[in-house]
Task: inverse folding
């Protein structure tokens, strides 16, 4: 059995590593479940400097699996399979893979004990089906699964690696992060650390960003590789040095220079979302937030759903479709709506203040507009959104006009509002009280 | 050129049709974008009786594409590619595919005119890049793209079909539904109509459902195929007759029998979501809805985001994390929270009535609980959720206890609440006023 603690230094550059992913399951082919393993594993490997070479999805049937594993095994450095290990899966999945790589399966009493223990702890009885989950490859290893019965299986053979992972994401992900990534890194098949430094920015388009950062990048010529990834109102910049001529410290120095140059348009380094950055600012400053949305129908507040501890600062939110709720719950005067319309700077401001007061929050955000495709008027066409921001420093509104598909309009409005909060919280922390650019100061 | 109006009847059963999907793009392999084409196309084909045989994702590079198309073309009845047709894509994508299937490309002046017209209408100038989008296969056809510049390409050759589709979903989906599906059906490669009748049910587990429906299915033996697909608090039943021994009318008669037997637990036939069914009931009865959520943080109201016309009945919603908003905005008495706790039948009922009154809605739904993993108390552990329902017929609460992952707890609570609304609206329409099962009648 190969000893995974011995590093196998490999002189080939990371970019030439070939990793293939085989995802198994009818539910993927029938569209019942999205192929989230491709998205998640692809991202993890990309961060370590290796782009997944290929993903194949087939049914969980022994013959199909054997053919795909054989083909991938013939040309890849690493073959990863997901699914096909559950007790109700095709019994012959493991056998098919074993045949494809030319290794027999052996029953492993230690796995059987771990499965039996798990069942005992859950107060359930082990079924004979679970017994086949106690098989491993003869010259392979076992990757313990803390969240399910089927362990991962690991084989190193002829300079290649085969990894079989259980399908449920809550089992696969910790197993991949804690066991597979470190093992692949030790073998030199992926980077030990992140392959690039990511700067997240907001409020600057991709080409404007490129122009502004060019003076920082130019001196480094082709030693520096720069990739842009634009979203709505956000853009990420990834700095790397595929040739290795710029080390981590040099790359970080360049990234710092970019951040300083971008000022407020720089959001953060790394992978944290804008909502996470805003959450951290709220928690650090011990301030609270409340939100009123109409045309984004809960998408803004939904940004905080998955953020642990959001309830510490997020007082709550209101989605109001009609004018009644605006008037009744948020205390927006009917006369204001009649005079200026529900989609106006004036109403956005009144909503922001109204929601902050209703929830007794320090900050109030309001989004009112027409996401389209229908709605809108000649003066205020679909794609027109007014944002309102109530803060301890004052209250402002901002108008955006974006002729695009409904989901794009909504995403941009939500991102703009989050980014506005981020800037305002940043200014509050640094004691700067100038009103934000492009904003109308009302009262 | 083959004439697509001539049907090519093919005696092989649909199940033996082999359709392969090739999805192109680094963004899929790097996890920047989920592979939604697999999910969506897989579902469309599944509904017509053919399970996608295989999906391969590779980078948009000519050599890789050529190899994959050649392999798929050698064994499949239909090969579908997505992506690789944009003006900034690898120039050689079309050439690579042309080489793989042994047909030259020709420039099509009609496509060029369509592209030029599109640019003129948008007030933009066509770039030389766009010219290559005017190529088609010599003995192939063009599938016009109403939402973008690159048309789809269609080839019938040696009894097989190759389809190349543009990558953006808003271009691909209408093109697939309006042009590709009818063509494949005409050639007998997929079913003319839906391959199964789907019954959607709620409130019954998969095995209980199987037991209840067995007497309806038993007389039909193996002429009838039944597949179950269980979700949280919902289950779908798909009835088909792969042998063809039961025609559409016979299948519908069996489905009707199931629906009658299931009574209120039957939701609908087809693919409409529970939220859509509830929306239709609200609109038909001209009633309105308001929602207050805590532990599901907007997931309930998010069910209506994509439903066109939801603003006609959905007055609005409130997400409240702390007790303050419950008291302030919803008028839940502080003493009630102190005596019974925020997660209790009493508070759920007060929230439901409070939100209905705040938004002046006929129906009010409240969800309060601990989604986990943290939170909860010994008496009220994580996974405990109380639902409240205020309706013109009365006000009730319901308790659910579900020890599972956070997202599962939330999905089940949201589905239970939607389903409760559905049942209550159904009873209101039929004049039945009995309180729902498992409900506590309060005041």
Result:
């Amino acid at each position: 059995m190969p000893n995974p603690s011995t590093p196998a230094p490999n002189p080939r550059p990371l970019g030439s590593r070939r990793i293939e992913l085989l995802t198994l399951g009818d539910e993927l082919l029938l569209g019942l479940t999205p192929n989230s393993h491709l998205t998640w594993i692809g991202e993890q490997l990309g961060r370590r400097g290796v782009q997944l070479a290929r993903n194949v999805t087939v049914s969980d049937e022994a013959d199909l699996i054997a053919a795909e594993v054989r083909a991938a095994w013939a040309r890849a450095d690493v073959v990863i399979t997901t699914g096909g290990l559950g007790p109700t899966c095709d019994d012959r999945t493991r056998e098919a893979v074993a045949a494809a790589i030319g290794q027999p399966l052996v029953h492993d009493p230690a796995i059987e004990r771990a499965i039996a223990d798990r069942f005992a702890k859950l107060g359930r009885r082990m079924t004979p089906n679970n017994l086949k989950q106690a098989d491993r490859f003869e010259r392979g290893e076992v990757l313990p699964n803390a969240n399910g019965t089927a362990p991962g299986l690991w084989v190193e053979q002829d300079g290649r690696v085969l990894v079989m992972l259980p399908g449920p994401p809550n089992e696969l992900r910790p197993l991949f992060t804690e066991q597979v990534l470190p093992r692949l890194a030790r073998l030199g098949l992926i980077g030990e650390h992140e392959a690039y430094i990511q700067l997240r920015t907001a409020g600057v388009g991709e080409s404007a960003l490129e122009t502004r950062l060019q003076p920082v990048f130019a001196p480094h010529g082709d030693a520096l590789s720069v990739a842009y990834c634009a979203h709505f109102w956000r853009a990420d910049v990834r700095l790397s040095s595929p040739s290795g001529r710029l080390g981590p410290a040099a790359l970080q120095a360049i990234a710092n220079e970019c951040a300083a140059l971008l000022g407020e348009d720089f959001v953060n380094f790394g992978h944290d979302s804008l909502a996470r950055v805003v959450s951290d600012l709220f928690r650090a400053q011990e301030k609270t937030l409340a939100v009123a949305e109409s045309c984004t129908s809960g998408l803004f507040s939904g940004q905080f759903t998955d953020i642990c501890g959001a309830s510490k600062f997020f007082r709550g939110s209101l989605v109001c479709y009609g004018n009644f709720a605006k008037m009744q719950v948020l205390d927006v005067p009917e006369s204001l709506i009649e005079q200026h319309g529900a989609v106006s700077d004036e109403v956005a401001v009144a909503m922001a203040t109204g929601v902050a007061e209703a929830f007794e929050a320090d900050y109030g955000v309001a989004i009112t507009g027409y996401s389209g495709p229908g709605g809108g008027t000649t003066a205020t066409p679909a794609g027109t959104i007014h944002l309102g921001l109530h803060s301890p420093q004052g209250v402002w509104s901002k108008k955006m006009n974006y002729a695009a598909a409904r989901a794009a309009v909504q995403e941009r409005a939500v991102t703009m509002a989050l980014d506005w909060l981020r800037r305002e919280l940043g200014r509050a922390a640094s004691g700067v009280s100038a009103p934000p650019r492009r904003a109308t100061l009302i009262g």
In short: The radius of gyration of chain A is 27 Å.
